[in-house]
Amino acid sequence: MRRAGRHFLQLPGPSNVPDRVLAAMHRNTIDHRGPEFQALGLRVLEGLRHLFGTEGRVFLYPSSATGAWEAALANTLSPGARVLVFERGFFAEQWGRVAARLGLDVVAVPGDWRRGVTADDLHAALATDPDRRIAAVLVVHNETSTGVTTDLAALRPVLDALAHPALLMADTVSSLAACDYRHDAWGIDVCVSGSQKALMLPPGLAFVAAGPRALAAAASATAPRSYWSWSEQTRFNDEGFFPYTPATGLLFGLDEALTLLAQEGLPAVFARHARHAAAARAAVEAWDLECFAERAHERSVAATTVLLPAGHSADALRSVILERCDMSIGGGLGRLADRVIRIGHLGDFNDVMLLGTLGGVELGLRVAGIPHRPGGAQAALALLADTAPHGVDSTALG
Ligand code: PLP
């Protein structure tokens, strides 16, 4: 049966792709060794450097972000090297599993999934490493499975204070272009990200930013690498090319997405995400439900993870929402399976899309018989009405 109206894709990524990006990708492939491609290659690599906030290198792969995890590890480490992973969510654990499969010696620090990694956590973990055997620390900036954001800027000072040589690696798959990230200023060595979230592109591109310490480590690291090899990439990237057939269509889209971000301005993009997240949290509070992220300042601007009352199935709620509203929202991953819903509010998103999303969730709560107070969508509407979007002077609207 035909369903009228648009499907709402409100996962915490992949996210909605703006029409301008779709239009930019709707063209024939060009010669990936020719001058037009060269200009495109140089432009997107420079645009990504700006987005990551780095004077270092950004490598780009036609792969999902899981490939970027592997690229980060395979380029900088040697077989058996020790890596520290904070188990604070599904994606942190997955990155650890990738490291283990690559033959690295993974030290997993168990922790509360409802909290981000703090400077104290890192300090305590490194204190157990007096002979400095840990070669890399892996931290997820925005843990998409829990909706918890870690204060990455607080971590480099800990390594410096201990004069610990470990590389600091960050995953910004669901935070890059949604909130502030400063690769160089925060002293991150390697950062992985992907196309399908706040970058407003379809899945299929992965990015790795690498600073001077990471590039130096890559020169002596001995883990086997071929497809992911930075030395191969560097040779070609310097001229705007890639050592393989690039995903030209996605690069047209990336070029346009970077233009859109520049036109809106990153501070405005971040403010937009923060405002929508605040409205989503106002809805959760009004429903008398619980945000999974325990500490208010760690709540993600990209997605809100909501804990359902005990005994109620999050997946049943998601099915109702899909059936009744034609809307996809995220479900629980790993140990949160069937316990939470994850409402995505990232990427190409505006007030009405958020209100539609929250209205759909509220309808679902009602139909599925989940105990809640009505009025969450209304609370979000009030917050949006009372806070002008960045750059809009609502007093001028009369
Ligand atoms: N890291 C984070 C924080 C993610 O949210 C995801 C996917 O959602 C990944 C890594 C893995 O990315 P991909 O599925 O593109 O391989």
Features:
single chain; 398 residues; alpha/beta; five-stranded mixed sheet; 13 helices; globular; binds pyridoxal-5'-phosphate
Task: Give structural notes.
The chain is built from 13 helices and 14 strands. It is an alpha/beta fold and 398 residues long. A seven-stranded mixed beta sheet has the order 2-10-9-8-5-3-4, with helices on both faces. Strand 13 (327-331) and strand 14 form a beta hairpin. The protein is globular and about 60 Å long. The mean pLDDT is 96. The site of pyridoxal-5'-phosphate has 12 residues, from helix 3.
Distinct helical segment count: 13
State the end-to-end distance: 45 Å
Amount of helix: 40-55%
Estimate the mean pLDDT confidence: 96
User: What ions, cofactors and ligands are bound?
Assistant: pyridoxal-5'-phosphate
Write down the Rg: 21 Å
Beta-strand content: 15-25%
User: Secondary-structure element sequence?
Assistant: EHHEHEHEHEEEHEEEHHHHEEHEEHH
Work out the number of β strands: 14
Oligomer: single chain
Classification by helices and strands: alpha/beta
Unreliable sequence segments: none
Overall body shape: globular
* Major sheet description: 7 strands, mixed
Quick rundown:
With 398 residues, the chain is an alpha/beta fold. 40% of the residues lie in helices and 16% in strands. The longest helix is centred in the C-terminal third of the chain and has 22 residues.
